[in-house]
Specification:
The protein has helices at residues 49-62, 79-91, 105-113, 126-140, 155-171, 187-199, 245-259, 265-283; strands at residues 19-21, 33-39, 71-75, 94-100, 117-121, 145-147, 178-182, 204-210, 239-243, 288-294. It is of the alpha/beta class and 309 residues long. Helix 3 links the parallel strand 4 (94-100) and strand 5 (117-121).
């Protein structure tokens, strides 16, 4: 069993990511509104999911549920699986994942390089199909697996409560006025939002989701037509927004061409929501510091529909 120190986020260099001010790329925001994004590709696995992945892994080991003779099992559309895979490789644990058959070749190659065992599910069923398959696997062989269950595991939001929220508050010197984040597992929004509200009760928390069930925003859920994560708390949001794939793509392309920062689809959607909010506040003549999360870099998606010409 690895020591507690070996599973510490600082030891594994998870978290403490830069908060990038991208306001100058969007002059319509004016001089009084700032948009900031956490550059989560600085995590070892290249995404925000390293935070929850590590907390879930650490909890499974600390509780004694995950031992060397058992396999960590979960569903993933890519980034959480990559987090489990590199952490498992580092610590010497096996990882098995159910993933949609639409998983990109690049993310599949990364998972296989780290030694994860992959089961591919119906691509038309997306992440929900992978969730259903994992539940069947767990029911069939409960003695073989430890079900990480990122959608129900409180460690998913707890990771952001303990790391992302305090980081954003400190990096803005407490000046943050709004936090915007998309809903997938919902852990980033729920955990960060809860902590920011404790630190600054007047902060405004805005959740974002795709504008329909058929979308190209990898990692995000249209809650009304999806399996709703057990950790999702609708009461955290002060307001809600919907973003189209086209709007997310336009925001991501603008940032790439104006600032040289390449975002993935979910980061592009977060940016689009933050910009829409920022424009509204600028039109009202208000001051604002809007923080969001740039979940990962765009290189993993260049061969996919989101970045197609």
């Amino acid at each position: 069993m690895p020591s507690r120190a070996a599973l510490d986020p600082k030891a594994l260099r998870v978290g403490d990511t830069p908060l990038l001010d991208v306001s100058r790329a969007f002059p319509e925001l004016g001089p009084r509104v700032r948009v900031l994004g956490k550059a989560e590709w600085h995590n070892p696995g290249g995404s925000v999911k390293d935070r929850a992945g590590l907390y879930i892994f650490r909890d499974a080991v600390d509780s004694g549920r995950l031992t060397r003779d058992k396999i960590l099992l979960d569903s993933s559309s890519g980034n959480t699986g990559i987090a489990y895979a590199w952490i498992g490789a580092r610590l010497g644990y096996r990882v098995s994942l159910a993933v949609p058959g639409s998983l990109s070749r690049q993310r599949r190659a990364i998972l296989e390089a780290y030694g994860a065992e992959l089961l591919f599910t119906d691509p038309l069923e997306g992440s929900d199909g992978a969730i259903r398959e994992v539940r069947l696997m767990m029911k069939a062989e409960p003695q073989r697996y430890v079900y990480a269950d990122q959608y129900s595991n409180p460690m998913t939001w707890r990771a952001h409560y303990e790391t992302t929220g305090p980081e954003i508050f400190a990096q803005t010197a407490g000046a943050i006025t709004h936090f915007v984040a998309g809903l997938g597992t919902s852990g980033t929004f729920v955990g960060t939002g809860r902590r920011l509200r404790e630190l600054k009760p007047e902060v405004r928390l805005i959740s974002m989701q795709p504008d329909g069930p058929m979308h190209g925003l990898e990692g995000l859920k249209h809650m009304e037509t999806s399996i709703v994560p057990a950790i999702y708390d609708d009461a955290v949001a002060d307001a809600r927004m919907e973003v189209s794939t086209d709007e997310a793509r336009e925001a991501a392309r603008a940032l790439a061409r104006r600032e040289g920062i390449l975002l993935g689809p979910s980061g592009g959607a977060n940016l689009a929501a933050a910009l829409r909010l920022g424009r509204e506040l600028a039109e009202q003549g208000r001051e604002a510091v809007i923080a969001t999360v740039f979940c990962d870099a765009g290189e993993r998606y260049l061969g996919e529909r989101f970045w197609a010409p």
